Amino acid sequence: MIIEAPYETHKNSDGKWFVEVRGRYFQVTDNVINLLNCLNNSDSYESAYERYCQDSELKLSYQDFCLLSENQINKLGFLKEEKINKNSYLTVRFKAVSPKLALYIGRLFSPFFNKIAFSVLLTSAFTFQLLIGMPALIEYGITGFNITASLLILLSSALLHEFGHVAACTKFGVKSKGIGFGFYFFIPVAYSDISGIWMLNKSRRQIVNFAGVYMEMLYSLVVGAIAIMNNDSILLSFSCFLFLFSIRSLNPFVRNDGYWILSDLTNTPNLMNASMVELKKTVNALVNKPTQYRMTKKSLALSFYPVINILIIICLLIYLYNNKSSEIIDFPENLISFIIDAFSGQFNRYFFTWDNLLALGFYAFIIRLFFIFRNFVSRYLQTPKKLTNE
Questions:
Q1: Is 47 helix (H, G, I), strand (E, B) or coil?
Q2: Residue 255: predicted pLDDT
Q3: Which residues lie below 8 Å from residue 65, measured CB to CB, with a gap of 6+?
Q4: Which residues, 6+ apart, have CB-to-CB distance to 29 below 8 Å?
Q5: Where is the chain membrane-spanning (predicted)?
């Protein structure tokens, strides 16, 4: 057996083949599947070549077959023994919910993804917040709501978001590999490992990607119902804020649900990198007129994707600074004082205010903008050095 690393092949309902290697999924052609079967069932390249010539319509010389085999083995990661970094866009991360527990939780919530239940509950959440929650939010706002209670509700909402993804996967027969927490550009986030959704067709993948937002919207409906039963206008307004806050995940310019939905709709795997490559080609085509690059509607749209991403961040920065300039300027000093007090045993709970959270968001956006520019310059604009014989 030439391929020693364990792998599995899957064919989804769209008829596309995928190879799973160490938890990562690669979309491949029928010819690659045939090649892997020949390599996996042979003890030498010679015998694999004989099998391949019998089974494949593609005729290759023995030398070309060996080159093709080595290329695919390396491309699919069979030779890489090191730990795979699946969520490379996350920095520090850890698993909080095991795959076994995630499966149990998924089964509990999977009835919410019945076609009738899904339609009725989603419509109910929209109607409730539009007719009852929104007027309360406009009248009372959320500034009167306790910041600690707000953070606890938002944390539980984030967990339910991930449970939604897991539940949708369970509903469609795909196993989740657990739920964890990490940091995305210094912002704490929850994540669920649902890479197996590539086994589903496009419509079901879209449901899985939207499932997190759906669960948060249902949660806002529950919070709103509790507020009405307790005649709590502030909690009612916060339930509407929670509903609107859930929509943030549909932002296609951050690696969140909206990003994966857009990537799937446009049939563009690794959307951010693909758009950066197209932007580089477009810039080169504009600067260096004589070029063989031919721009299509899709390539032009992809070129605008990172540009719009940056413009949105700049607009948010301007908006935050115009409205919270003093809080933003004072935040570094306040943060240092908070850390010093914490180390000396004096925990200042008054540090956790909405103003400080907005100021933290401002600096997080600054850092994110820096990384976007740095990555674009280092990976896409720098000219490769020519090799010399010196």
A1: helix
A2: 78
A3: 45, 48, 49, 52
A4: 17
A5: 116-137, 144-161, 181-200, 207-228, 234-254, 299-321, 357-377
